[in-house]
Design goal:
Blueprint (H helix, E strand, L loop, with lengths): L2 H19 L7 H17 L24 E3 L6 E5 L2 H14 L5 E7 L2 E8 L2 E7 L5 E3 L2 H4 L16 E8 L2 H13 L8 H9 L4 H7 L2 E9 L8 H12 L6 E4 L2 H14 L7 E8 L14 E8 L5 E13 L5 E12 L2 E7 L3 H7 L6 E7 L3 E7 L24 E3 L6 E3 L5 H12 L11 H9 L16 H7 L5 H14 L4 H7 L7 H8 L5 H5 L3 H5 L6 H12 L1 H12 L19 E4 L9 H10 L3 E3 L8 E3 L8 H9 L3 E2 L1 H7 L4
Parallel strand pairs: 2-11, 19-20, 19-21, 21-22
Antiparallel strand pairs: 1-6, 3-9, 3-10, 4-5, 4-7, 7-8, 10-11, 12-13, 12-15, 13-14, 15-16, 17-18
């Protein structure tokens, strides 16, 4: 691997780490593990590549640096080194036996959640803390107190001690939580691990209790001598005497017993009520562990065997085509149910026509299905030798399956879309986007209420929302929006929204590839929605971060007859379509900044970002070689952005340093 390839891989993995810790993973665990192996291999072959900020040397999540939240660990909470073959497991086991022939090993479930340690004193829980960066974590004592599995008052007091465990969410609780999120019009979680992480770090313990977390204890961090002899015996004591749920595992002596226990855990994955992402092999005699340190990132005395991604063959019985908010046709394969990573799956996206063509997928084909990130079913390939006679590659319809209008494929894009903006399949999603926080931000209009208005025929497009006042008495009588007080409140919210910034209206129109950030950028370059609607594709591509495809989407949207009529109605309703003229200076022209962390001088990060733009600068979302400076009031943070900035030699400035450096007020 060349240095350039190494730097590119390191950069990619840092971004993946940030996404993972933000509970929005962008690659599967398996893909990340393979990248880590490649990174380590390159570092072994070229030690000169490696630096202290390498993903192979860093651990854990960025810590929220707020008063009263962070805590320094008494015992570092590090990671476990992964291995991927049975041979690697036995190599490590034999190294341990060469030094300690009487060594025993406990093979345990590697629960897919997040680590938390709990300190006890005087028979009570006194502190619960997340792993954080391995050395500094977050105080989550209040949230730990509402987890049923966490023992708050000990039946027996052995003196001060500390345990470490894994907080997770059962599959049943995960499904229930996501159902509630959908009902409340909130974003659903990608998988139980991410949901558990977000829930434990909630600022409101009531929300943590409502979602329901679980926990397994898997280690005694420190404590009286009788708990620090045998790992297996210590866990048994915690279970029997203190009532703590301990991680399932088996004490083993021989190679055969260890491999058998690993195989048994792997075979049980489909029957467990929670996710696991491997099996942990630990030296049972705790005193032996420090003879086998694993490095700055990993704790001593254990390894984690990672199972290969589970995949199975199944037969496609149907391909359903749905229509998204922007009119995009979304093909979904419906296949014979199979069990993968603990759940039954029978559906997977087929993405687009090119994906279908490249994999040669049709109804009746046998396909190989796996789980991306061990939660999202995906089709990896078809099995051509098993294709029945007469089966052909599936083709998306020429007409919208929801409304019958023609569909078209955007030039330079893989997407096929319905041309009809009043398509009923698009309506509710479009309306929810329009009233959402990143668009018009109209409070009180959740998914259920929007669906009700659509079902009763009051709204057929976003402009109809502003006609609801003409149906006030009827809406109150029918109770569509609730009683009189609530109806008037919602109508008042709609009326107040008319004066909001035009970028919000633009974001609410659901133009493909134009979200909140894009809408803000466009409305800083055009004086009004009308000016934008009349702009040429060339003028649009002159706007920073607007490419040819996005420009074509915008240009096409405003040229369609139905959208011209929509704007006429919104203008007649009194919505603000003209951006206030802002005075921009040039002190920061040509400079790019990244803003992160808590702010003090400004109200929030958005205000600070706007300040940078008004002085001619650009604000980016991630640190790169093009970044002029990272603005962060906590320059000592080990967050991904800080780490990346230090590795590139990019200055990290507090707000005050930023203002002073560039002489801004």
């Amino acid at each position: 691997m060349t240095r350039e390839e190494y730097i590119a891989l390191e950069k990619k993995m840092r971004a993946e780490n940030e996404a993972y810790e933000a509970a929005e993973p962008i690659v599967s665990d398996y893909e990340y593990d393979m990248q880590m192996q490649a990174l380590k291999r390159a570092e072994r072959e070229h030690p000169e590549y490696k630096n202290e900020t390498s993903p192979s040397e860093t651990v854990g999540a960025p810590v929220r640096r707020k008063a009263g939240v962070t805590v320094t660990h008494d015992v570092p909470m590090l990671s476990i080194e992964d291995v991927f073959t049975r041979e690697d497991v036995l190599t490590w086991v034999h190294e341990v036996r060469n030094m300690h022939p009487d060594a025993k090993f406990r093979v345990e479930h590697k629960i897919d959640g997040l680590s938390m340690s709990i300190r006890y004193a005087d028979g009570k829980m006194v502190l619960a803390e997340t792993r954080g960066d391995g050395y500094i974590g977050e105080d989550v004592t209040l949230n730990a107190g509402v987890i049923d599995d966490v023992v708050k008052d000990l039946p027996e007091d052995p003196g001060p001690f500390e345990v470490r465990g894994e907080v997770y969410m059962t599959l049943a609780d995960f499904e229930r939580t996501n159902e509630n999120q959908e009902k409340e019009g909130k974003k659903t979680f990608a998988n139980p691990r991410n949901c558990a992480a977000g829930t434990l770090r909630q600022l409101d313990p009531k929300e943590t209790r409502k979602r329901k977390l679980s926990m397994f204890i898997f280690n005694v961090q420190k404590g009286p001598d009788f708990l620090m002899q045998s790992h297996d015996a210590g866990l048994d004591w915690l279970s029997e005497k203190e009532g703590m749920p301990v991680v399932p595992g088996r004490l083993c002596t021989t190679d055969e017993e260890i491999l058998s226990a690993i195989d048994a855990i792997g075979e049980s994955r489909g029957d467990l009520g929670y996710d696991i992402d491997g099996a942990v092999v630990k030296i049972d005699q705790i005193a032996y562990r420090n003879d086998f340190p694993a490095g700055a990132k990993y704790s001593a005395g254990h390894i984690a065997y990672k199972y290969p991604p589970e995949e199975k063959e199944t037969v496609i019985r149907d391909i359903e085509v749905s229509v998204g908010m922007t009119g995009r046709l979304n093909p979904t394969a419906v296949f014979d149910p199979i069990r993968l990573c603990g759940t039954t799956v029978s559906r997977a996206t087929l993405h687009n026509q090119d994906f279908i063509r490249d994999l040669h997928i049709g109804i009746g084909d046998t396909v190989i299905v796996y789980k991306s990130g061990e939660i999202i079913p995906k089709i990896r390939a078809s099995v051509p030798e098993k294709r029945p006679e007469g089966v052909v590659d599936f083709k998306l319809p020429d007409f919208c399956p929801a409304c019958g209008a023609p569909v078209y494929r955007e030039e330079g894009s893989v997407d096929v879309r319905c041309v009809n903006p009043e398509c009923p399949a698009q309506l509710v999603r479009h309306l929810v986007n329009f009233v959402g926080r990143d668009a018009m931000d109209i409070k009180g209009f959740g998914v259920e209420l929007i669906q009700k208005l659509a079902d009763e025929g009051y709204v057929k497009d976003v402009a109809d929302l502003y006609d609801l006042k003409n149906h006030r008495d009827e809406l109150i009588e029918k109770g569509t929006l609730g009683r009189e007080k609530n109806t008037d409140k919602l109508l008042s919210e709609l009326e107040a929204s008319k004066t909001k910034e035009p970028w919000r209206l633009l974001a609410g129109l659901a133009i493909p590839n134009v979200g909140k950030t894009g809408a803000i950028g466009l409305m800083t370059r055009f004086s009004s929605i009308d000016d934008l609607a009349n702009a040429s594709e060339e003028a649009l591509t002159a706007v920073p971060d607007v490419g040819e495809i996005t420009a074509r989407c915008i240009f096409s949207f405003f040229k369609r007859k139905e959208n011209v009529g929509l704007l006429v109605r919104l203008r007649a309703a009194g919505l603000n379509m003209t951006a206030e003229k802002e005075t921009f200076s040039t002190e920061l022209q040509g400079l790019t900044f990244v803003v992160t962390g808590d702010v003090a001088h400004f109200k929030n990060r958005n205000e600070l970002s706007d300040f940078v733009r008004k002085h001619g600068g650009k604000v980016a979302g991630s640190v790169s070689k093009k970044t002029t400076a990272l603005i962060n009031n906590d320059a000592n943070s080990t967050s991904g952005k800080n780490t990346r900035a230090r590795s590139l030699g990019i200055p990290i400035l507090t707000e005050e340093e930023f203002l002073k450096t560039y002489q801004l007020k």
